[in-house]
UniProtKB/TrEMBL annotation:
UniProt entry keywords in alphabetical sequence: Transferase
Coiled coil ranges: none
Upper lineage: Bacteria, Pseudomonadati, Pseudomonadota, Alphaproteobacteria, Hyphomicrobiales
A Pfam family recorded for this sequence: SQS_PSY
Name of this chain's protein: Phytoene synthase
Cross-referenced InterPro entries: Isoprenoid_synthase_dom_sf, Squ/phyt_synthse, Squalene/phytoene_synthase_CS, Trans_IPPS_bact-type, Trans_IPPS_HH
């Protein structure tokens, strides 16, 4: 008897998107559990499309440019109200319509993936930031819109957070990227450190020079994490703990890299369950920021301008005054996260 396949519906699409995040991004999933349901569901849909896009390019083999072209067509159909037959496509079509997300934002993500497909390298930090603006800053801006916030200053801080996260990812994955033939570290930094890019790709090995470049990249990320924090108090109260949790967890990845001697060639740096749970609890505490009015990065300014040209009425979220209740939810996560880590440690390698 053939397996029962339910008809597509918003509910089944949301469930499918949530499943993609649970298996594909543990750090984001942990932080997302602090989001109110009204924001969590579209956030899952947004991240599912981003994950789908990234995987579609990475798993295509030699025809990555064709994969990007197909993704651009899927995006066009989603904005035309005729999404493809995939939960992430249908969810994206609903999200961009409901939250008035300009097409320039998801298109920026696909442009960044196109740069990946062509194997682009980055001459300096501004060039790398332009890439990070596309693949991560644009996602931060879209999350702001889902939360009902279109203030340019808050959008600038959301883009800072996205870029910082991407710089952290790059610092963590130097060896993994090199073994896949990819290089994201600024070329001028490598040159100053006496490192030849092609040699690094051919024989990725830890070295004091490479550790210094990695530390420099993490320092750049930390500046942006500090700036991003100043925008969190302007988000809806219900959303602040989740976004701060994401900021804390990703910054902690950088500290894990530092504890490894800034070695990003060997084992991948991770934030384990107990530490992640502690950061989730810390994310519920009040916070302050001092850089709210800083101008956006030049590389993310065009994303903010795209939102300004695409205004929409603000939607307020239900108030979330029960902070103590949310702390209980965070504490409940500790056992779950610890069990996951225990399972991973005991599983055969």
């Amino acid at each position: 008897m053939p397996a029962f396949v339910p008809e597509p519906s918003p509910a089944t699409d949301r469930a499918a998107c949530a499943a993609m995040i649970r298996t594909g991004s543990r750090s984001f999933h942990a932080a997302s559990l602090l989001l109110p349901p009204a924001v969590r569901a579209p956030a899952y849909g947004l991240y599912a499309f981003c994950r789908l896009s990234d995987d579609a390019v990475d798993e295509t083999g030699g025809n990555r440019a064709a994969a990007v072209a197909r993704l651009r067509e899927r995006l066009r159909l989603a904005y035309a109200g005729r999404p493809g037959n995939h939960p992430a496509d249908r969810a994206l079509a609903a999200i961009v319509a409901r939250h008035a997300i300009p097409e320039a934002l998801p298109a920026a993500l696909l442009e960044g993936l196109a740069w990946d497909a062509e194997g682009r390298r980055y001459a300096d930090l501004p060039a790398l930031s332009a890439y990070a603006a596309r693949v991560a800053g644009a996602v931060g801006a879209m999350m702001c819109l889902i939360m009902g916030t279109r203030d340019p200053k808050v959008l600038a801080r959301a883009c800072d957070l996205g870029v910082a996260m991407q710089l952290t990812n790059i610092a963590r994955d130097v060896g993994e990227d090199a073994r896949a033939g990819r290089l994201y570290l600024p070329l001028d930094w490598l040159d100053a450190a006496g490192l030849a890019p092609d040699e690094l790709l051919a024989r990725p090995q830890p070295s004091p020079a490479l550790a210094a470049v990695t530390a420099r990249l993490l320092a750049a990320a930390d500046i942006l994490y500090a700036r991003a924090e100043s925008g969190i108090p302007d988000l809806p109260l219900a959303c602040r703990p989740a976004i701060r949790a994401a900021r804390l967890i990703y910054a902690e990845i950088g500290r894990a890299i530092a504890r490894n001697g800034h070695d990003s060639i060997g084992p991948r740096a991770r934030v384990h369950g107990a530490r992640k749970a502690a950061l989730l609890a810390r994310a519920t505490l009040p916070l302050r920021g001092t850089d709210r009015d800083a101008p956006p990065l030049p590389e993310t300014a065009y994303l903010i301008e795209a939102v300004a040209r695409h205004p929409a009425p603000l939607r307020s979220l239900p108030p979330w005054w029960n902070i103590s209740g949310q702390v209980v939810r965070v504490l409940d996560l500790i056992e779950v996260l610890e069990q996951r880590d225990a399972f991973r440690r005991s599983a055969p390698s």
